[in-house]
Structures are given as C-alpha cells and as structure tokens.
Design goal:
Largest sheet: 5 strands, antiparallel
Structural class: mainly beta
Helix content: under 10%
Oligomer: single chain
Order of helices and strands: EEEEEHH
Length: 130
C-alpha cells in the first residue's frame, strides 16, 4: 500500500494508540497495512519498530477478497533520525513522514518544520498559505 495517505483512507479510525510517546519523536512514517482485526496491536513485519497504530470502528468493512482490514501503522526504520541523528535524514524526512503531534483519528497528519527539519523545509513552510 502507498504510504502517502488521504483522509478518505482513514474514515473508520476511532483511536490512535501510541507505543512510544509522540512528543519524543520528530517524525513517524505511516502506512496502511492489512490486518485480520480492527483493534489491538497488529503484527509488524518491517525493519525498525512500530511506534503506534490506529484502531477502527465497528462499521469498518473487511476487504471482500482477503477478509483483512486496512489499518494505519506508524513506524521508524533503523536509519531514521531518532536512531541515527547524523544519518540520511539529518535534514529532511522520508515522503511518508509526518509530525506525530499532528496525528489524530481520521486525520493524516502534517509535515511541519520539526518533522522536515532543514533549511529547505523551513523556507518552504514559511510560504505555506493553507
């Protein structure tokens, strides 16, 4: 699934569960994963670590072919800024990264100067009109 999400992808979310404090993280990556349940901690099969996930309401329907639910998962990879501050994301951030303090159920989250950190990101944000 694409990690670049639309709010229409999230219409059945009713809670975001954090496994780590979002206040301690500059950004998190987000993706939609197929899971067998609407609630509870989903299985995680990536490098790095899961730092949070969304839970779905009772009206969320499973995919008719697979029987699986699409749920948002928040994660970080070993080369991300929190574990490797001088690494590839010392400035900038991956495309699917958003500021975890802006995430809510049914809301994708925003790229902020903190999440994007770097002169280009801060300059671009100062021209933002939305």
């Amino acid at each position: 699934m694409s990690s670049l999400l639309n709010e229409s992808d999230l219409c059945h979310e009713n809670a975001v569960v954090w496994l780590e404090s979002p206040d301690e993280l500059d950004y998190v990556r987000q993706a939609l994963d197929k899971t067998p349940r609407r609630r509870g901690r989903p299985r995680y099969e990536r490098d790095g670590r899961m730092v949070g996930y969304a839970e779905l309401d009772a009206q969320a329907e499973a995919d008719p072919d697979s029987g699986l639910q699409l749920r948002r998962v928040f994660f970080l990879l070993p080369h991300d800024r929190d574990a490797n501050p001088d690494g590839p994301y010392h400035e900038g951030a991956p495309g699917e990264a958003v500021d975890p303090r802006t995430i809510e159920p049914r809301r994708v989250g925003d790229k902020t100067p903190r999440s994007q950190r770097g002169p280009a990101a801060i300059a671009a944000n100062s021209n933002y009109c939305g």
